[in-house]
From TrEMBL:
Residue ranges occupied by any FHA domain in the UniProt entry: 25-74
One GO term (biological process): regulation of DNA-templated transcription
Pfam families: AAA_lid_14, GAF_2, HTH_8, Sigma54_activat, Yop-YscD_cpl
Top-level lineage group: Bacteria
InterPro entries with a match to the protein in the record: AAA+_ATPase, AAA_lid_NorR, FHA_dom, GAF, GAF-like_dom_sf, Homeodomain-like_sf, HTH_Fis, P-loop_NTPase
Gene: vnfA_2
Organism listed in the record: Rosistilla carotiformis
Descriptive protein name: Nitrogen fixation protein VnfA
Boundaries of every Sigma-54 factor interaction domain copy: 306-535
UniProtKB keywords: ATP-binding, DNA-binding, Nucleotide-binding, Transcription, Transcription regulation
GO molecular function: ATP binding; sequence-specific DNA binding
Length: 606
């Protein structure tokens, strides 16, 4: 219940002066003033404060620049709680002390120091001429530096709190440290208390809590027992907001049982609180995004893992590992739905860019006349319909990977720009004047015969060679034998869970049908067939006819694609010649070199 003045602005910001009602207190620059300010604009004896008729009064003592109370120039005023007094350039705020009473009746929490927090790290109050203090300052900055480094490197909220606790405990020798999180109801919830059985020690008056959480002020205060013989729970406490921008997300408490904190502890806690506010908000946002991402993946039966243990898939996986670590462009070939995008993700995951963005663009899904502006960006008004600036996919993927699906659909102008970027040149967004330079790894995919496109002059030859520094061929599902069963089980498990039909199974005949089917639409088709069978049919067993595979067993004879037949013939020839390539080449009427090249192209086991 002690009235006090707090310096809100000016050189003495943060200092507090207890007001003793038994004495008249002088305010000014003179060393004899009880409330001594270092503000050069204040007079030596600027004003006096005294307690009369149960109220605190302030009177100007012929100051040079006058006295303002609540913004009004005055010679004399009776002070009310929270009134402000301007002395020179220093704003002092008066508190009658009634608001700070502790929740407990016989204890008093007296503020030693407080500090409004407004963006940026606060500067230390230590005297600039004290060399020992300067050395101490360096230690304190090193602590903050180390804390920042560790917080930057940590993405998970629990470890962020743990890192900060360890540092603060060590540096301040606090007996108890508590992190309180501000719940949606505006109440503080103990999120983490160290040691864990000390939660009951965290007792802060509701008024102080309000000022920390609403006003973003940090406090250092001591608790004094007002009833003789009663032992207090702690002697000193520091309470600082965890602030991110304008928002206070929580509060950090530090308690000491016997000894006192010092100013350096207060400064360290205060600045750590600001770092923590930012780090925790960021870690929580990242965690929320991760959960959301996993949820979307699960809902769509997507997995980041390439399911498959067949020999061609095992070979593909080992190539992905090697290609991932290298840094060149990758061209992924394979039929539609075979898993090219998944392979691209896997390459990215195995690369040094795995923590950076991977963006996927389907060039076939964007109207041809918009591809360029989508990829490279455009400026508002650069063409009809460009009603705002667009940051192109290349720029968005900067430092990461850009997956260009159906690359064969890229216009010739787009191809020319792409080639220039790949050669390390900057590019101009559509309608832009400032050149942009990006560092992006390109993974392209196609289910077309790009070499054929090159011959038809629909695709630039130089771009083709640049893109295919590394080539990966995703084998069609029909060539993956045992993988069909693995994928069947994976999708059955996923969709039966998603559609809440846990006991649904395939009949033996249904399994057989799926295992012998040619799957022209590859894994995507298998996934869709299982999804709709689970949705459409009642009962616990999916029969062969429920799968809707009317052309089941037809193999690939329904296609006239030359490459499909070519691959089939090579496989057949190898089978008939017991795997001997020279023999097979003879039977096929092609040279050995061509046979070797085609076997590699089609990724046929030798
Ligand atoms: N090996 C695999 N393991 C698990 N899921 C797979 C696998 N291969 C493909 N899928 C799934 O099949 C679907 C199609 O895969 P993806 O989109 O990667 O094929 P794509 O070859 O890129 O097709 P398109 O050429 O039509 O773009 C996706 O849902 C993908 O998650």
């Amino acid at each position: 219940m002690v009235a006090y003045l707090k310096v809100r602005s000016g050189p003495d910001t943060g200092r507090r002066f207890r007001l003793d009602p038994l004495h008249t207190l002088h305010v000014g620059r003179d060393a004899n003033c009880e409330i001594m300010l270092t503000d050069p604009v204040s007079s030596r004896y600027h004003a006096v404060l005294f307690h009369e008729d149960s109220h605190w009064q302030v009177r100007d003592t012929n100051s040079r620049n006058g006295l303002l109370v609540n913004g009004q120039k005055t010679d004399h005023a009776t002070l009310q709680d929270s009134n402000t007094i301007l002395v020179g350039t220093s704003e002092l705020q008066f508190f009658d002390g009634h608001g700070d009473s502790a929740d407990s009746n016989n204890r008093e929490q007296t503020i030693v120091l407080d500090r409004p927090i407004s963006g940026g790290l606060s500067s230390s109050n230590f005297g600039p001429l004290d060399p020992l203090r300067k050395i101490a300052d360096v230690g304190y900055l090193v602590d903050l530096y180390q804390l920042s480094l560790q917080l930057i490197g940590s993405g998970d909220p629990d470890s962020v709190i743990q890192i900060a606790t360890e540092l603060l405990k060590d540096r301040t020798q606090a007996d108890v440290i508590g992190f309180m999180w501000l719940g949606e109801d505006g109440k503080l919830q103990p999120e983490y208390v160290f040691p864990s059985d000390a939660a009951e020690k965290i007792k802060l008056s509701s008024e102080l809590t309000r000022r920390v959480t609403n006003g973003g002020e940090a406090f250092w205060f001591k608790e004094e027992s007002t009833s003789p013989g009663q032992k207090t729970q702690w002697t000193d406490a520091i309470c600082v907001p965890l602030q991110h921008g304008e928002e206070v997300a929580g509060v950090l408490h530090l308690y000491r049982n016997d000894h006192r904190f010092n100013e350096r502890h207060f400064e360290l806690a205060l600045n750590s609180g600001q770092l923590l506010g930012v780090a925790l908000s960021r870690a929580r946002r990242t965690a929320a995004l991760q959960v959301e991402r996993d949820r979307l993946f699960t809902r769509n039966a997507e997995t980041n893992n390439l399911i498959g243990e067949s020999p061609p898939m095992m070979r593909l996986k080992s190539k992905i590992e090697r290609v991932g670590k290298a840094n060149g462009c990758v061209l992924i070939r394979g039929e539609s739905g075979a898993g090219k995008e998944l392979v691209a993700r896997d390459v990215h995951q195995h690369s040094g860019r795995r923590e950076r963005p991977l963006l996927s663009v389907n060039c076939a899904a964007i109207p041809r006349d918009l591809i360029e502006s989508q990829l490279f960006g455009h400026k508002k008004g650069s063409f009809t319909g460009a009603d705002r600036d667009h940051i192109g996919w290349f720029q968005q993927a900067h430092t990461g990977t850009l997956f260009l699906d159906e690359i064969g659909e890229l216009t010739l102008e787009g191809q020319a720009k792409l080639l220039r970027i790949m050669e390390g040149h900057p590019f101009l967004p559509v309608g832009g004047v400032d050149e942009i330079r990006v560092d992006v790894r390109i993974i392209a995919a196609t289910n077309r015969d790009l070499a054929e496109f090159v011959r038809e002059k629909r695709f630039r030859e130089d771009l083709y060679y640049r893109l295919s520094v590394f080539e990966l061929h995703v084998p069609p599902l029909r060539d993956r034998g045992q993988d069909i069963e693995l994928l069947m089980n994976h999708f059955l498990e996923h969709f039966s869970r998603q559609h809440a039909r846990p006991s649904i199974q395939f009949s033996e005949a249904a399994k057989k049908r799926m295992l012998s089917y040619a799957w022209p639409g590859n894994v995507r088709q298998l996934r869709n067939v299982i999804d709709s069978a689970i949705v459409m049919f009642d009962g616990n067993t999916i029969e062969a006819d429920d799968l809707g595979l009317r052309d089941a067993g037809v193999e690939v004879t329904d296609t006239l694609r030359l490459d499909v037949w070519e691959e089939k013939l090579i496989r057949e020839a190898l089978d008939r010649c017991n795997g001997s390539i020279p023999e097979a080449a003879k039977r096929l009427g092609i040279s050995r070199a061509t046979a070797y090249r085609k076997i590699a192209d089609f990724d046929i086991e030798k």
